[in-house]
Design goal:
414 residues; alpha+beta; OB fold (Dihydrolipoamide Acetyltransferase, E2P); BirA Bifunctional Protein, domain 2; 8-stranded mixed beta sheet; 11 helices; 16 strands
């Protein structure tokens, strides 16, 4: 840590006007570096070099200022110390730190334009924008997702509340009432997730089309990506779009016939033949996840946008089953990232209630807390949900794919 210069200490004690007001500003920013005849300022998304000729009181201020100080220079050439650098950190402010902030600010500008583009896309396609609660009684049924729980106090009473893992249940309730295409951009929260691709708090885009099927939503995804490429003026080549399935990949690359009825024993045999280690205690769900991670995902072209479909019935989540027993859902992959997850929505209230109960059992098996059943959601299905397709997209991941950003943490200010 830098020692305080005697001249600076005397100036701060006797002459400095604490946090003065300023007028007629020509330059303003944080001092990055002081040279014998100039000062470099961090000002917004750029640095500005101000020479000694532009500063009337240069001799005084150059002896006082240190990197990190916030200053202004008015049109008359008077430099004013607005806020002194008093940080006690071991590392002082320097040009490298300024560059890091500038990079983050430019990323933020790109992000703002990205969000604006998404809004324009859905306005163009006449979707209804909605906002649902992020603090709910029922956060979402996914059996492998850990949730954030808190307590809501009302007088002397207290009850559990959750941060949403997805707005899915709330949006389906709205679809059953409005019967109109709608979308939402919201923050979602998932506990125990932290990596280059995962964050405990992230942005989700989710949309639903009543009276539609998965092919319509897949086309939405293609159109959205191509629209954003043009809207954001990206120089990247337009990606190719391909559709494939677990069954096709496992047959072509591993000579394994995967069916809706493939058992845990079948999956273990497939993993053994391909020298993938697994624990004998793994459940069918866990074995399928391992097959997906170790065998299927490595075969997905990184540069192509890939729609992976025909999930087994035990991985149906909130999706319908087709006549062959496959779950009517797909996941979207691009540049090594799982971008989105789409369902042809299950609209049978009896089957849905049973799945919610089964999901709670799986949560307990996974060492997670069972969640309250959302009976309001079941009631919305009892009132009638038309054939509907919907998708959730992790916005940070879509942004990372568009801008070739390697780490989700780079999109966070803190």
């Amino acid at each position: 840590m830098r020692e305080v210069k005697p001249v600076r200490a005397d100036y701060l004690a006797k002459k400095w006007v604490k946090y003065p007001s300023i007028t007629d500003v020509k330059h303003a920013g944080r001092v990055v570096e002081i040279e014998p005849r100039s000062v470099l300022l961090f000002a917004g998304v750029k640095t500005v070099l101000v020479t000694h000729k532009e500063i009337r009181n240069w001799d005084q201020m150059s002896a006082v200022l240190i990197p990190g100080d916030v200053v202004s220079i008015n049109k008359a050439g008077v430099c004013t110390l607005l806020a002194p650098w008093r940080s006690q950190r071991l590392k002082d402010y320097d040009e490298q730190e300024a560059r890091v902030i500038i990079k983050k600010m430019r990323l933020q500008q790109n992000w703002n334009q990205f969000i604006s583009g998404i809004g324009e896309f859905f306005a163009k396609h006449k979707f209804l924008p909605v906002q649902t609660s992020t603090l709910v009684d029922n956060p979402g049924p996914e059996p492998t997702i850990d949730v954030f729980k808190t307590q809501f106090k009302e007088g002397k009473e207290s009850r559990g509340k959750y941060l949403i893992t997805s707005p899915e249940l709330s949006l389906k309730k709205l679809v059953s009432q409005t019967l109109t295409p709608l979308f939402e951009i919201t923050k979602v929260y998932r506990n125990n997730e932290n990596s280059a691709k995962h964050a405990p708090e992230f942005w989700m885009l989710e949309w639903y089309r009543p009276f539609a099927n998965l092919s319509t939503v897949a086309q939405d995804v293609e159109d959205l990506i191509l629209f954003l490429r043009q809207y954001l003026s990206l120089k990247m080549k337009a990606p190719a779009f391909q559709h494939t399935s677990f069954q096709k990949i496992l047959k072509e690359h591993y000579a394994f016939l995967f069916t809706p009825d493939s058992s845990a024993s079948d999956l273990k045999k497939c993993l053994t033949q391909n020298q993938v280690y697994f624990s004998e205690s793994l459940s069918l769900d866990d074995l399928f996840s391992l097959v997906n991670l170790e065998l299927v995902e490595p075969q997905l072209g990184a540069q192509d946008v890939v729609f992976l479909n025909r999930y087994p019935p035990y991985a149906a989540a909130l999706a319908k089953l087709d006549q062959d027993g496959w779950a009517e859902r797909f996941e979207v992959y691009w540049k090594g990232l799982e971008i989105g997850n789409a369902f042809h929505e299950l609209n049978d209230p009896d089957i849905q209630l049973q799945r919610l109960i089964e999901d709670n059992k799986k949560k307990l098996e996974n060492g997670l807390e069972a969640l309250p059943l959302d009976m309001e959601f079941i009631e919305s299905l009892n009132r009638g949900l038309p054939p509907t397709a919907g998708i959730s997209i992790g916005l940070e991941r879509l942004f990372m794919a568009l801008y070739d950003e390697p780490d989700i943490k780079n999109l966070k200010w803190i």
